[in-house]
Design a protein that fits this description.
369 residues, alpha/beta, TIM Barrel, 2 domains, ten-stranded mixed sheet, elongated, disordered N terminus, disordered C terminus, binds iron/sulfur cluster
Length: 369
């Protein structure tokens, strides 16, 4: 007998993998609480469990805020609420199957999902901060030519709970709290829009994990319509992987540009900044002889004219068989200085965890599927 009536309780758009995954015929569907936003938990508790206002939010605070993953340990819930949750819900978890630590302290984490698929994350320590890089898909369909992460193709979207679980699992590895979240692991977050939007809400809601939207960054390869859509729906920081100053070059290294060329992408970014008042981070990976000339620096400035942004410059991380080369450091700093001399905010970012293939674009490398 299936007892869950999500439409009745107002808990809508529950992704099917969260609905009784692995439940046999005739068994009760169990809702994964980690896949519900605090307001969805509240609605469920009121409509389905007959609880008063605020009780569901208290559940959310214990789960996401205090990271209590055992209903019996949520002591200040009343007994009928706990019994109701126990009969209708589950709390999933994610195991870290393997971890490696780089010389610079960066940890690469290998998680195995309930269906056997593998995803990776990276935990990056820094002065006064600990950043977790979260994956949003198993594989990626975007096919960026410089990305080993996406070279294996797309397998499936992650559920909201699987994204939330990456934070829960990684947090157990460090005595220091995770201060920043970046959606820069495997996958294109805006291709998994609904699950990522719910993740964003859980991460930033005061009854959820309570992160400041400034501390949660979504990085996209440039899905222009989805950038416009998120402007009104997701309160996060936005980073865009630009990497070229002409359509000819960007078509070659980022196939998404054939669908949303530079002019269309810039239109979306202006719309996003106008609507949110936010600044965008422009990520620009430099490839030797491809996009690292002085002319490129000037075209980049022309492209970004009037856009509230800062520019992160990264040197390509070479991998075996890569069709690009890493530029000389002097070229990178000359590129940066051109930008600085014209009043732009530009920073050269050093890739972290290169010796364990945890650097940008190298995730899922070296693991058998
Ligand atoms: Fe996908 Fe990002 Fe790699 Fe592009 S850079 S293929 S969007 S994971």
């Amino acid at each position: 007998m299936k007892r869950m009536r999500s439409a009745d309780c107002g808990v809508r758009n529950i992704p099917s993998p969260l609905r009784g995954e692995g439940q046999g015929e005739g068994s009760v569907e169990l809702l994964d609480l980690k896949g519900l936003t605090p307001s969805e938990i509240e609605r469920f508790c009121m409509a389905e469990l007959g609880q008063k206002t605020g009780r569901g939010l208290a559940v959310a605070r214990q789960l996401f805020g205090k990271r209590i993953e055992d209903l019996d340990a949520m002591k200040d819930l009343n007994r009928p609420l706990r019994a109701g949750l126990a009969s209708r819900c589950r709390i999933s978890s994610l195991a870290i199957e393997k971890r490696e630590q780089a010389e610079d302290g960066t940890k690469k984490l290998l998680y195995r999902l309930e269906d056997g698929n593998i995803i990776e994350g990276v935990l990056i320590p820094g002065p006064g901060r600990l950043t977790l890089c979260v994956s949003t898909q198993v594989g990626c369909a975007s096919g960026c030519g410089f990305c080993l992460t996406g070279s294996g193709g797309f397998v499936r979207n992650l559920t909201t709970a699987e994204m939330v679980n990456q934070i829960f699992a990684a947090a157990k590895l460090s005595p220091d709290p995770i201060t920043n979240i970046v959606l820069m692991g495997t996958g294109e977050p805006l291709s998994n829009y609904d699950a990522v939007r719910k993740f964003a809400e859980i991460a930033t809601d005061q009854h959820g994990m309570g992160y400041s939207p400034k501390k949660v960054t979504l990085s996209t390869c440039g899905l222009a319509p989805m950038i416009e859509k998120m402007a009104g729906e997701m309160d996060l920081s936005l980073a865009v992987s630009l990497n070229a100053t002409t359509d000819e070059v960007r078509d070659r290294i980022m196939p998404v540009n054939k669908t949303y060329p530079l002019a269309r992408l810039m239109q979306a970014l202006h719309y996003y900044c106008d609507k949110t008042g936010n600044t965008v981070t422009i990520e620009y990976v430099l490839f030797k002889g491809v996009n690292d000339s002085d002319e490129d620096a000037h075209r980049l400035m022309a492209l970004l004219k009037g856009l509230p942004c800062m520019i992160n410059l990264l040197m390509f991380n070479h991998f075996q068989g890569a069709p690009f080369e890493r530029p000389e450091e002097e070229r990178v700093y000359a590129f940066r200085n051109t930008l600085l001399n014209h009043g732009h905010v530009a920073v050269v970012r050093n890739s972290r965890g290169k010796d364990i293939h945890a650097a940008c674009g190298q995730l899922r490398a070296g693991y058998p599927e």
